[in-house]
Amino acid sequence: MKILEDNNGYITSMILLMLLLIIILLLIITIDEQSYYINNTAETIESNKLTSVTNDFQEEIPQITKLTLSDITRQTVKDDKPLTNSRTTIKNKIQEEIDNKEIDYKKKTGCNINCEINNLNPSENPFQIEIEYTIKTTYNNKSTVKITKQEHVPLTDSQYPVYDPLPTLKTGIKPTNNNIHYGKQLQEITNTNNSQIYDNATQGYIIRECPYQEYEKHGHNNTTIMDCITNHYYHKSHDGLCIFCRLENKTTCKDMGLETFILPTKNVTSAPVSVDHVLLNTTQNSQYPGNRIVINNTTVIYLDDGHKTKYGL
User: Fold this and answer.
1) Which range (8-12, 87-91, 285-289) has the least confidence?
2) Which residues contact 118 (CB under 8 A, 6 or more apart)?
3) For the whole model, what pTM was predicted?
4) What's the chain's Rg over C-alpha atoms?
């Protein structure tokens, strides 16, 4: 009987030991699963935070770019001094503002952000510039997001107006009420016949894109062309100057550029063409005559055959 009892006790002990091992194993599995869940949740939270902060910072870049363009073009007009390398100047200023913004984001979010402006170039659309940048965002020194992106930033945001420095750089005239009033200066640099028609001529100062995208429709009715002239809208032009070339006071540009009308004050049969990149280009044979286009009883402009066709006039 004692042997039987001993065997039963042994068996009972073994069963209890196995149950204990199973319980311990289940506890280990449960703890591992819980730890995995916690770690996975933490990683997800960190990833979502990085993505959110990076996206928010990306939205700052076009705003900084537009503000920088507005400030630099306005200051260039104020100083009446062309930039030697406008892309580098603008790029460095944007980078400076971005570096300051990185410090702000570190304080607000705890994320380390490093954003480098890689390139700044003209766009195929001259009412935009192309900016390329790389953002690296790190959280807790382990989770990282890295993005390289090209973005096209408009020059025509009314909140950040971009000013045309070319009229001032060519003639020294400063703007009044958002327009350039040339007085005698434009007449003095015009070297073809009937230059006197540009005595007291006017031109726009803020770059605003013409809303009439089919340019040939300008000539379909006087309302369209008068609205364009009155508001001093700018147009795409293969012969015009991009914003970088305007800042550098150049006379030619290899990229797609801009042009706008300069409004004369006198009515004659033929006179120098009323387009800014023609009248403001004083190199030899760059100014050339155009025929009178009567808009209404008080407004005329002068265009060559190419510009007449372009604007349907």
Assistant:
1) 8-12
2) 132, 133, 134, 148
3) 0.84
4) 34
